[in-house]
Amino acid sequence: MQTTKVKAFGAASSEADLDQMNILRRSVLPKDVELEILYCGVCHSDLHTARNDWGGTIYPTVPGHEIVGKVTQVGEEVSSIKVGDLVGVGCLVDSCRTCESCKKDLEQYCLNGFTGTYNGHEKYLDAQTFGGYSEKIVVDEHFVLKVPENLDAAAVAPLLCAGITTYSPLRHWKVKEGSKVAVVGLGGLGHMAIKLAKGMGAEVTLFSRSKGKTADAKKLGADEVIISTDAQQMKSIKGKFDLIIDTVPYVHDLNPYVATLNINGTLVLVGYLGELDPMLHSVPLIMGRKSVAGSVIGGIAETQEMLDFCGKHNIVSEIEMITMQDINTAYERMLKSDVKYRFVIDMASLK
Questions:
Q1: Vertex 37, ends 32 and 39: CA angle to 5°?
Q2: Which of 150, 189, 217, 284 is 20 to 30 A from 307 (CA-CA)?
Q3: Which of 213, 156, 223 is nearest to 185 (CA)?
Q4: What is the pLDDT of residue 1?
Q5: Is 212 helix (H, G, I), strand (E, B) or coil?
Q6: CA gap 78, 140 in Å, rounded
Q7: Domain residues of the chain, as ranges?
Q8: Helix, strand, or coil (residue 171)
Q9: Fold of 162-294
């Protein structure tokens, strides 16, 4: 297998700052698409992987799974994409494609394990996958997405993780005109959940711990903001919501939110991984057929549907552009929630 040396930014260890390095990309195979990366969003998963917060990081690691770029080369069997197209690559670059999940376009739940855009297994080179903090990437055509030309390409990048992570549960729980949706947390995921739910015609409420988010939330499309620490406000919306999208990435009490679900309502976790503390009270679940569920990203067909939906409704992320050399500072700021609402790297800076 022939390879090309590519300039990238990555971490050599969990303690090391990200720095410039060279990585190898495979040469273009018959079904492959090569793209020059123009923009790459910065996700909390990037930071967790770089610092081995979840364990299992293979070093050196090159993060980045919110990739937008221009196609520079295609394999001879590629039919849907041509050189010059504006395309995206999200969190997945491969899956088995034969299991029951993959056959249903649910590659994110591949029963044999999907291949992540970074820190996955690159079967052709028998090495780990490297992400979008790099000059270019080679990906199988099936996992390459078409970006609507009417959207700001840089602001599209976070749609490929933050966008699909919130779009998928909105679609799965059939949000439509008049649905009552609440969002917990106003960050990279939360701001996209508000925009997308509003685009679907829902009545949207933000749960926030601070009054300081009210103006921003309403500008993004929220109809109402409820301060979750205010007992009176929480009582006033008891039994209201069809769906709550909880984007908070750390352990927190879900019970007050469950009380605001209506009969058959669902609270879906998209931000937090781990044990629930305090535990869920089962009485409201049983007495109202309420659910607490989880969801992760989306399949390729659904991600394309989300991009097309965003193109039609002119929805993109709110971003702050940075250079590749600013990434370590951006990570520190991200830990303090000091970004509205997603960093995007201008990859021209890597050159």
A1: 140
A2: 217
A3: 213
A4: 86
A5: helix
A6: 9
A7: 3-161+318-350, 162-294
A8: helix
A9: Rossmann fold (3.40.50)
